[in-house]
């Protein structure tokens, strides 16, 4: 599979997991996936394969914006970066769902946080922290 095909597959897998978190968060399958972090683990394996296989780009690195730009100019490393986002954003989504359950935050308040986390990672996490703080103070 080329980078574009892998991108499509991993994006679809992550989107399905987000859909389950949002729409079927109480379903046994969803709960199993959350408790075992199966999708982030799969994405982590894919990430490791791509980062190990393609990291050696002359001039690329993490020391400056220019070095990161050089890394991301390679489709395989850009894909690795994308998979990194997908995996970590899902872990944050799992954390939000678990925290909401433990704190009895209604799921309808969690849904916008999950959608925002899916689209813009830290913004959704921030929104959840605000919702959680407001709900806890009552």
UniProtKB/TrEMBL annotation:
Transmembrane annotation, as ranges: 6-25, 37-57, 77-97, 109-128
InterPro entries cross-referenced by the UniProt entry: ABA4-like
UniProt protein name: DUF4281 domain-containing protein
Pfam families, alphabetized: ABA4-like
Keywords linked to the UniProt accession: Membrane, Transmembrane, Transmembrane helix
Organism domain of life: Bacteria
């Amino acid at each position: 599979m080329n980078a574009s095909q892998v991108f499509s597959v991993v994006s679809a897998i992550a989107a399905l997991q987000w859909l389950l978190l949002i729409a079927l968060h109480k379903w046994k399958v969803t709960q199993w996936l959350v408790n075992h972090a199966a999708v982030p683990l799969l994405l982590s394996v894919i990430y490791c394969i791509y980062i190990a296989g393609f990291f050696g780009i002359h001039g690329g690195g993490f020391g400056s914006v220019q070095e990161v730009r050089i890394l991301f100019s390679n489709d395989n490393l850009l894909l690795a970066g994308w998979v990194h986002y997908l995996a970590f954003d899902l872990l944050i989504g799992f954390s939000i769902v678990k925290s909401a359950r433990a704190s009895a935050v209604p799921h309808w308040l969690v849904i916008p946080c999950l959608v925002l986390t899916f689209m813009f990672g830290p913004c959704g996490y921030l929104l959840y922290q605000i919702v959680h703080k407001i709900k806890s103070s009552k």
